[in-house]
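Figure S4 source data
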Amino acid sequence: MDNKTITIKKIVEVCGGKLISGNENMEPSGYTQDTRAVQENYMYIGIKGENTDGNDYIEKAFENGAMGCIIDKLPNEEVFEKHKGKNIIHVNDSIEAIQKLAKYKRSLYDMPVVGITGSVGKTSTKDMIASVLSKKYNVLKTQGNYNNHIGLPLTLLNLKQDHNAAVLEMGMNHAGEISVLTDMGRPTICVYTTIGTAHIGNLGSRENILKAKLEMLEGIIGQKEVIINYDNDLLSDWKDKQTEYSVTTFGMESNSDYVAYNIEPHTGGSKFNVDIDNVTYDVSVNIAGKGFVYNGLSAIAVGRSLGIEMQDILDGVANFDLTPNRMHIEEVQSNVAVINDCYNASNDSTAAALEVLKNLAAMRRIAVLRRYARTSESSLRIYIEKLEKMLCETRLIY
């Protein structure tokens, strides 16, 4: 479909809302739930959170240039009078409204959409795959870690007329959450990084984590192509038992479709070889760590699936930009380097970062870890004992 415009009238129709005031023929240029991110002609979405209610900030949104708002709590008459003529749409539930709207907007685009999930490495894999796809496509990708029931619809709502591919990160804490995301995103390719122990407290077992992650396949369309880390025990077992999907594998230790070998890690990244159609390619990744070798393999698999030239794929892998606070190594002074991998790190991703730390050429290594309030002292001590086996020195600060 060529016409991808969504007017105020269509928003009201799709969301099942009511236009309180405004012009139903206008079209927003973007959407945000953050008044600080509002730009001219944006639609502001008022969302009630745990600590603040976004419905109370529509005046600020209008002051910052918003052309309208979607809210589930009506403002007082004074606000109406002050902003007469602005587009105010009242809905029963703002989150449900933007999810419906995002699903509709996705339906307007006939394009490749890569869905990514897993226990570790979702964001960095998203960044690398988007870098590869950008060699051929105008790519929309999940910003930061906007990978939940609010972040993913906001990502989709910011699809522009000229976007012709998307890379969507899908995260979850509980069963059923990815079902909601994949119903909106409708991926044409699904990528699985690994199945670890993140959120095992909510789901009970790694097998239940796998089941929750496999919800992404409920929304897959087209050729039902799935790309998995075949080194992961649960993913490899799933692949060997299933018959419904076209599965491509990558790994370092298993007999995969894309295998990394001759891996040479260094402070600034890694180099490795991969054989494709009887040709050996030299691959460079600009971030250190075993996980980024896996990311590179998945990006190669996606790139080849979408017909991107191999040299462009290699350039995309070698020169991708990583979302901040994830495996960023900075030399703060002579002979002192800091690894910043502090954003929402699970036990699995923390262990991966510590593996990088262990392999760095250094006489002294220090790990500074944040203790979460829900972590018991006994659990923390067991974890630290494991770390001490990896590192020459572990200093705990919390």
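Figure S5 source data
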Amino acid sequence: MKNISLDITKAACFLEAGAVKAFEPKVKKAQIALEEGTCPGNDFLGWLHLPSSITPEFIAEVNQAAQVLREKCEAVVVAGIGGSYLGARAVIEALSNSFAWLVNDKKNPTILFAGNNIGEDYLSELTEYLKGKKFGVINISKSGTTTETALTFRLLKKQCEEQMGKDEARKVIIAVTDAVKGAARTCADKEGYKTFVIPDNVGGRFSVLTPVGLLPIAVAGFDIKALVEGAQVMEKACGKDVPFEENMAAQYAAVRNGLYQAGKKIEIMVNYQPKLHYYSEWWKQLFGESEGKDKKGIYPASVDFTTDLHSMGQWIQDGERTIFETVISIEEPNHKLLFPSDEENLDGLNFLAGKRVDEVNKMAELGTRLAHVDGGVPNMRIAVPKLNEYYLGQLIYFFEIACGISGNLLEVNTFNQPGVEAYKKNMFALLEKPGYEADTKAIKARLESEK
């Protein structure tokens, strides 16, 4: 079976001859630091060999819990934010029917996502939609006190209990949380919820292959065994003993860091498959939260082509030359649709008659890559044989290990996120949360002085 593959030729040509190869010793050092746990953030390396540690028994346990929700619920709300929902959403939306909300699929509950914002309208409309429905909740939070998720879970828990009764609600609420501590663990133990553990040594943005991602994906009806198998294959293909020239994660990390040093400060993730929109959102968090530290880091952006060619195409083609692109290309779509002929040919498109729509899309992809390279935009291309669980598993692990290597090359702590706490401190002070009295006083004085 083919694996995903990486073509760096249209990016390496923007660097000096031998520049990619020159990264080999640095990449090797970065890989060894990950393997030996000598890099900053080494207490969060549990994802590194996670795929190969997942057992058939564990997959069976996740599938069994998912089946309970599938049998009892019309809808399941995944309550989580950041890495606690983006990975699951990326996979579910990539594999789902694009018009799933219109499809009468009685086998699978509708998967909804909440706890990732504080929008009153959003939450009001969600609770209104759930009225009269049998719904379950997957509450994903290590601490149980993350504001967006905790606020949402309190609303949903109350509604679920009111509509179904506490005994039935207990059967359709699952907590994915810390093993022993935190508000979510305390609540789950008190209420008797089924629980899964988020490993202490796996950060949120690297947690897709833990129950954080696997449980919602299984509830949606997808094959988590194949997802894990794909990740296992990529774990071997990107291991530290794989030669540099054959290791696509090592090559990708080397090229993107070479381009960064050459002044390319923005990486644009490009897809030509609308189903990959949330995959790009997951990728943006993975690299943005991992590398954006110490006033360093490539800025991760994303576009959905060809749609965004009609909004961002001009800037990418002719704007400031501080960008490079990484294109995810799905080689074979899951459906086949031929373009029809038309006798009058008023739109002038009969030259496409009989061609697959995907052929038109592929020529748009190739034509755009050629134009952007000619316009001074380095391009890397990741070819994915098919959009399914197995290859998404490969793609997930590929970017995780590449991110780990790349962060070490950049000499930052890839696995923390100190900057995320700054806004929380201000928000809690403004809301007058107990324990933040001094901060509340200081912020109020500052705001008064700025009037």
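The mean pLDDT is 94. The chain is about 50% helix and 15% strand.
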